[in-house]
């Protein structure tokens, strides 16, 4: 059987970061920066007040209380500024440019708040409550490097240096296609032998949580031709495709039957539990990566976390590798098949312990929903006594 690490390595060697494109800032959230963003001007662009108060000369307020005439009023955005001469005060608002001559700002709380003249009750030295030009960023300085994930604060600095559009790697568009003749849309009644489709919801949500765009396609039954038709229809909007089901050893395995003969998708057994049957390859003229995940609900989600998530991160232009693990102490004994890496569902507590949930079958959706971590048991370990240090992956 192929190792988990070898399967991930093959996937990461195949998928490529998406080509950059230029987007309006409003559409750039969740993308990855594909250029260096620099500041054309210093930020702040000019010395400005950090508080509502009075701009004065520090020398004039060395002795307090002192009363000074207020010769001007400057709001943020003011451009006609009167210089502050000796013995003068200018009423100033937060963000307003500090007028020439003034070297300090007295907060309004330290004064009587006067408008014609002001009595200052507390003194301060030069430079109080003044935000200096360039103290955030100098002109020409790089504010964001390529490869940065663009969140709200990153959008803020891009806008803050005056940019309206930015070059990014877009969020991959990922189509999720569940297969199985037994599947019924949730909300509709079940007939005999049927179950509600849950995988396409889990996988589409997992795609979105990874930062890609998830599209849930209509499910298809067990007919390989119908599967290929649906795949063909979906490929126009896909940077990647995830299927669930139809990859094991049964008589009706539409995904394997349809994709196997193409020669560009390999179906293999990976030494893991759950998630042993895996298909991966490329389809269509554009060689779109396709992940053919097993149908058991826990298997498909675990496969997503181990293989698809790193691949989507690489397509986003982000660092990609195996899921991060942390160490915890297991409460209760664990068992694992020889030669396969197990990913048991567990609840990780804040005290650094992890307990396996009840119900470790790969069909046990409710048990999965009660877990917040996967407990990793290496291939060569079959029994883990209670109290042992184990690696866990947070879900
Ligand atoms: N003879 C063998 N049988 C099986 C093997 C094997 O090696 N030899 N492998 C088992 C393992 S491990 C897994 S995992 C499954 C994988 O099966 P498929 O990928 O072909 O998936 P299906 O047969 O279509 O479904 C499996 C299971 O999951 C349920 N399912 C499928 N799709 C959904 C969905 N969208 N939402 C909810 N549940 C879904 C389906 O009803 C089945 O119960 O094969 C084992 N068998
Ligand atoms: O390996 Mo299957 O994925 O156990 O359920």
TrEMBL record:
It catalyses: adenylyl-molybdopterin + molybdate = Mo-molybdopterin + AMP + H(+). Pathway: Cofactor biosynthesis; molybdopterin biosynthesis. Residues 175-314 form the MoaB/Mog domain. The keyword Transferase applies. SUPFAM superfamilies: MoeA C-terminal domain-like, MoeA N-terminal region -like, Molybdenum cofactor biosynthesis proteins. Its EC number is 2.10.1.1. Its cofactor is Mg(2+). One of its GO terms (cellular component) is cytosol. InterPro entries: MoaB/Mog-like_dom_sf (IPR036425), MoaB/Mog_dom (IPR001453), MoeA-like (IPR038987), MoeA_C_domain_IV (IPR005111), MoeA_C_domain_IV_sf (IPR036688), MoeA_linker/N (IPR005110), MoeA_linker/N_sf (IPR036135). Keywords: Magnesium, Metal-binding, Molybdenum, Molybdenum cofactor biosynthesis, Transferase. One of its GO terms (molecular function) is metal ion binding. It comes from the Bacteria. GO terms for biological process: Mo-molybdopterin cofactor biosynthetic process. It holds the Pfam family MoeA_N. Belongs to the MoeA family. Catalyzes the insertion of molybdate into adenylated molybdopterin with the concomitant release of AMP. NCBIfam families: Glp_gephyrin, molyb_syn. This is Molybdopterin molybdenumtransferase. It comes from Nonomuraea cavernae. The lineage of its organism: Bacteria, Bacillati, Actinomycetota, Actinomycetes, Streptosporangiales.
